[in-house]
Specification:
About 50% of the residues are buried. Helices cover about 80% and strands about 0% of the residues. With about 500 residues, the chain is mainly alpha-helical. Helix 12 (about 300-325) packs antiparallel against helix 13. The protein has helices at about 5-15, 15-35, 40-70, 80-100, 105-130, 140-170, 180-205, 220-230, 235-250, 250-265, 270-295, 300-325, 330-365, 370-375, 380-400, 405-420, 425-435, 440-470, 475-490. It is globular. The protein starts with a helix and ends with a helix. The protein has 19 helices and no strands.
Length: about 500
């Protein structure tokens, strides 16, 4: 292995730490931020939901278009890095603006609509170019597995750090400035600065294979994008499996999980931080050791084992949540259950991320073209489509179980604290009284949506992958060998 490949294995993953902090802040906390800082009528909540779903669907369809644009880009810096730089800088500006507005009512809804679509456009620029670069960093299966798993590790570091510190510093006794709105503004500023800083590692430390420059520049064509997807059956099946997996994994992380923890155990961000930190600790093992695991256990048998682990975790969470009295023992049992479920789900994600990229060589073998940017753009497309579905599910859950009736009261108290009309201690005492009004049936209903529904989706994802995805390790290696032989002949 040459020196540059070894450098790529560290500098490329390092670039995503700040990106994933941005992603976690915006997609994981924007709805929670709104619920606890704005007074929302049912119509306004509906408008916010429509904006989020529409923007994420738009964003998803924009992904392959961006992939096509990247494939056409030819500069002395390559086709990926210009979009990495433009995208990360503009996303930083958008994120800062999103969490530092003082608008309320309908004016805020209009502002939110503009800012959300801007985020969709700017984040896509660097997201597609970042993940699209991986196939250009190495065709060897071991190198690709290492880069992919290590990138997932660093992404996990960024996302987990955000998941830990954002709630810790924005809700409860450690809230920056004593109120949620001020705290989110400062957190957003820090993360908006960290994104470009970490991206410098990829921009200046990574060198990709630029053999694509010898190929004719493909035209911008919707027909081409559709053709790549429709003529690659393995890409279509892995896309469906990934969609099911992503919806199941992210329901809990799109605001519903934190809302359940606040309603069940109290309005203290530190509890949600602890829940997510412990819950994600086990995934670090996979991020580090997956390349070694993949050499000993093939993907499909490993997925079955992980399904059993995740299933046990979800059932443990549901049983504890529904049957145990509210205390810290219950909290720890549910946290352990989440750790098990997240371990299994993350294994699914790693496998599917690699499986999507492996369809690049399958596409070259079957159709004569790699189309790596278009193909790899399908992964974030599916992630964003799943995110839109999650938003709809979360909002539906809020409506069914009357969540806004309580969050509006909490938001009102947060606003009073920001104006200095009540002390922080009085605010927290009043919020505890609001949470005490929540009925057990409402909390159990939310529990179903964060445990049993994700488990059902995980089972469906496994069945699709097992029965329809044929690019196992042997098949992929054979395809690569055949492509190498053809290249040697030419």
């Amino acid at each position: 292995m040459d020196k540059q490949t070894k450098l790529n294995m560290w500098m490329f993953p390092l670039g995503t730490v700040g990106r994933d902090m941005m992603y976690q802040l915006f997609t994981g906390f924007i709805l929670t931020y709104i619920m606890f800082t704005r007074q929302l009528t049912p119509g306004q909540l509906g408008a916010i939901t429509v904006i989020m779903v529409a923007a994420r669907i738009f964003d998803g369809f924009n992904d392959p278009i961006m992939g096509n644009i990247i494939d056409r880009t030819r500069t002395k810096w390559g086709k990926f890095k210009p979009w990495l730089l433009i995208g990360i800088l503009t996303t930083s500006v958008v994120i800062y603006a999103a969490f530092n507005s003082t608008l309320q009512g309908d004016a805020f809804i209009w502002f939110f609509g503009v800012i959300y679509f801007l985020y969709s456009i700017t984040y896509t620029m660097h997201d597609i170019s970042f993940w699209g670069m991986i196939p250009s960093l190495g065709k060897d299966g071991g190198v690709r597995d290492t880069i992919s798993s290590r990138t997932a590790l660093f992404a996990g570091v960024g996302g987990t750090a955000a998941s830990v510190f954002i709630p810790l510093l924005t809700a409860g006794g450690m809230t920056i400035g004593g109120n949620t709105a001020y705290a989110y503004g400062k957190v957003a500023l820090v993360i908006a600065l960290l994104g470009p800083v970490f991206m410098c590692a990829t921009l200046f430390g990574v060198k990709e294979d630029r053999s694509y420059e010898k190929e004719q520049v493909p035209p911008v064509s919707f027909k081409k994008i559709i053709s790549v997807v429709t003529h690659n059956d393995q890409l279509r099946w892995i896309a469906l499996a990934l969609l099911l997996q992503q919806v199941g994994q992210n329901i809990i992380l799109n605001g519903l999980g934190s809302m359940y923890i606040y309603f069940e155990f109290g309005y203290e961000g530190g509890l949600w931080s602890l829940f997510t930190t412990i819950g994600m600790m086990a995934t670090a093992f996979l991020m580090i050791f997956y390349p070694n695991i993949s050499r000993k256990i093939h993907r499909k048998p490993f997925m079955w084992q992980m399904l059993l682990v995740a299933g046990a975790g979800y059932l443990l969470m549901f049983g504890a949540g529904a049957l145990m009295p509210t205390n810290m023992v219950k909290f720890w049992v549910m946290t352990i259950g989440y750790m098990l479920s997240n371990f299994g789900f993350y294994a699914f994600y790693l496998i599917m991320m690699i499986s999507v990229m492996n369809t690049v060589e399958y596409n070259e073998w079957k159709n004569g073209e790699r189309n790596d940017a278009i193909i790899t753009s399908l992964r974030p497309f599916i992630t964003k489509l799943a995110s839109a579905i999650c938003v709809a599910i979360v909002t539906l859950t809020y409506v069914i179980f009357g969540v806004t009736g309580y969050t509006n009261q909490i938001s009102s108290l947060e606003q009073e604290a920001s104006l200095g009309t009540i002390t922080e201690t009085a605010k927290l005492d009043a919020i505890a009284g609001v949470i005490g009004q929540i009925q057990p049936g409402q909390k159990v209903g939310m529990l179903v949506f964060i445990t049993l529904i994700p488990l059902a989706l995980m089972i469906a994802s496994y069945l699709v992958y097992k029965k329809k995805y044929i690019l196992d390790e042997e098949k992929y290696d054979a395809i690569c060998a055949e492509l190498a032989a053809k290249e040697a002949e030419n």
